[in-house]
């Protein structure tokens, strides 16, 4: 089980070893989707072997104050959130996600991967395996909204995104994680 926000999950990765460096994707504003100056973070293969990876992800997110958790899939139409950032932990199967809107990059994810999406970043599920499963969460348990890049959503969405703070902890590695220095 995870330790605390202070220690994050460093113990799960061999004591004081530094957390892995996530891949980063910066997605420009498309007009319909604000996306973000903050990069999407993609941690590959970070879930340790465990009998129940969904429970492990959920408990890890909770310990690091990414709560209001859910288990399900990822919506199959482009959408974004203006009221919160989001973490998506893949606990089973695989999928191809599209980030940034209709013409954004396709990213393949599989069990053990974790994405951290800044508020405003468009995302959707384009293909998935039959066993695909995700645990989601939000910093400080924030409530999420669901915007689809439609006329009239902006500038109110942009103003909501601009008011959001940088999270106090990385959803996997707590205070020792790379999220805060990358998103500073």
Topology:
Elements: E1 23-27, E2 36-43, H1 53-63, E3 66-72, E4 86-92, E5 94-99, E6 106-110, E7 114-117, E8 123-128, E9 133-139, H2 156-163, H3 179-183
Write up what this structure looks like.
- The chain is α+β, with helices and mostly antiparallel strands.
- It has three helices and nine strands; from the N terminus they run E-E-H-E-E-E-E-E-E-E-H-H.
- It has helices at 53-63, 156-163, 179-183; strands at 23-27, 36-43, 66-72, 86-92, 94-99, 106-110, 114-117, 123-128, 133-139.
- The strands form two sheets. Strands 1-2-7-4-9-3 form a six-stranded antiparallel sheet.
- The chain starts with 22 loop residues before the first strand and ends with a helix.
- The model is unreliable at 1-8 and 10-15 (pLDDT under 50).
Put simply, the count of helices is: 3
Approximate strand percentage: 25-35%
The spatial strand order of the largest sheet comes to: 1-2-7-4-9-3
- Report the order of strands and helices: EEHEEEEEEEHH
Q: Characterize the biggest β-sheet.
A: 6 strands, antiparallel
Sum up the overall morphology in one term: globular
Distance between the termini: 29 Å
Tell me how many strands there are.
9
Q: Can you tell me the residue ranges where pLDDT is under 50 for at least 5 consecutive residues? A: 1-8, 10-15
> How large is the radius of gyration?
15 Å
User: Helicity, in percent?
Assistant: 10-25%
Average pLDDT score: 93
Structural class assignment? alpha+beta
